[in-house]
Design a protein that fits this description.
By secondary structure, the chain is of the alpha/beta class. Helices cover 47% and strands 11% of the residues. Strand 7, helix 13 and strand 8 form a beta-alpha-beta unit. It starts with 15 loop residues before the first strand and ends in a 45-residue tail after the last helix.
Length: 669
Amino acid sequence: MTASRPGQFQGPGQLQVGWQYATAYPDPGPPPRRPTPPEAERLSPDWAAAQRREESQLNRPLKAAFAAAVVLGLALAALGAAGSLGALLTGLAVTCCALVAAVSGYALWQGEHAVRSRMADERARIDRLREAQESRLFAGQAEHAAKMQAWQARQLAYEQQKRWYAVRLPDGVHRVDIAGGTISGWSAMLTTAAASLLPAGGEITVLDLTGSAAALDLAGFARATGTNPLVSVLPDDLPRLDLDRGLGRDALAELLSAVAGAGGEPGTDGDPSLDHAILERVIDVLGGQPAIAGVAAGLRALAGDPGDDVAAGLITAAQAARLAALAEPSGPRARAVLERAWVLASRLRKLAPAGTALVPLPRSKLRVIALDRRVGTVSSRVLGTYLAAALAQLLSGTPPGPPWQHTLFVLGADKLHGGTLDRLSDACERSATGLVLAYRNLPAHVRSRLGRGNAVAAFMRLADAEDARAASEQLGTGHRFALAQLTEAIGASVADTADGTYTSTAGEAGAGESTAGEAGAGEPGSSESEPVSAAIRASTGWGMATAKATADGESLAQAGQRSRDFLAGPDELRQLPASAMIISYAAPGGPQLVLADANPGIGGLSAATQLTLEEFRARPAQEKAAPAGPGGSGDDGASPPDTTAPPPVRPAPNLGPPPRRLDWRRGRS
């Protein structure tokens, strides 16, 4: 698979959720040691002296005989010359002395010759040893040169290799379940996903049910890349929402019964079928496509209190009379219906403003619908269920498009009941809409749904010990992960966005030319847009923190190193860095686990590539060794081809072994 440019829509099931730290080239270790030249062999002076001493001891008798013969011969010759001895006797005596001197002298010469011969043989042997040592040294030096060249290539590959690889969803996955996480961690995940969708023409809808501003970085990134996000903050912007418009009787009754059921505790509320039947009757009486405020008024009329609603114009007197007629039969069943109508009316009252002040809104590739932090627990469940159920109804009638081209993120999905989660998941799957459900806590109905079906389960920091234990059991034991220093350092430095607030843009939008102008500003190709990686660095807390932490080469090198290994146990899950994410998905060879970093700032590092680790390893060797193009990953979000492998090392010419060095000691030995 070839490399893709950052921001390019990756196709079915190719949403990017983070970055995987890995070193494809291992650390080559220290360089090979240069062979140490052995101590040169030389003639031992002690040995030579011992040889001469031994020879001298052996030649002492001969030397004495030679000296005596010479001295005696000279003395006899002198006596003969003086006339003391006869000529014949002198000649005979001198001849005998000369013979003794000659024999002993020859024996001395032979001994000296033998010593010289042994010395010569020893020098020849030493020369042969020295030549053998030099040959081994030259061979070792040549081998060391080859090893050093190979080590330098491995060292260069290790230092220049990519260390961050894209983590994308497997083909065919339609949902991601994120268990745990902090607001800043979810913010990182949103921006990383958006960086792979928005520049390619994808669309994103975010339901932020947390009461915090988890999508602030995402909105800032979208503006920096030329997309004006449409932000709605509930309940203030509820009058401008039209999610329930165009729904038929059955769909509207199902939506409102789900919303009413969310107002009570799971498993302790009334009969959903009764709620549905009551709402159908009321909608039939009202006719057409009534607003939620009208349905609530109809429920109050059914319960026997239509006066104020008729005066307010929410229902007509005739409709109130027909509803009152429905409530006339007496009996336990009738009383249960009336009591339930009161309950439904009180719960739907929170949604009464919906759709009462509609204005034309610009179309945007990014829409954020968030709950204000002032919303209470019950109201947040009601509003959240309304948003999720209404979107499920809308998506059910949407024809399928390219998978993940439209992606829905639900933050704080643990506030939704199991039935609502199932309906939303089914609707997204039928319409090929990507769905990401992020759960802060893991109640029972969430645990049973994590990773169920054709979904990927991801685990971020879990604050609750019981949730961490349940997540650890689902992951399994014995899985060891390598954590990068960058993940820990940046996760500790990025401040949580829980204190941030959204600025509504839905309330400011109006009809006319200004709306059209805002819509045009969000089109791709706007002159105000910035490259993806530059926009992340300039407009997001994660991008700024990453750029600051890797501002110099030394910091970047340290940040690219491994920090520590850990086992995925409950304690470690509670201490994960904010952007760390353990992803679990099914594969032909069994469940696969990947530790990813959702930090969007990693994409701007020279050590990052848009290839996945599997794609890099599957590339042919010649592609890995191809020279890198100009630049790193690029500020424009474009990763040039062939930057995933370090540039090749050009081999040096083979000059053979080095020349012999002159040994000045040889002449002296």
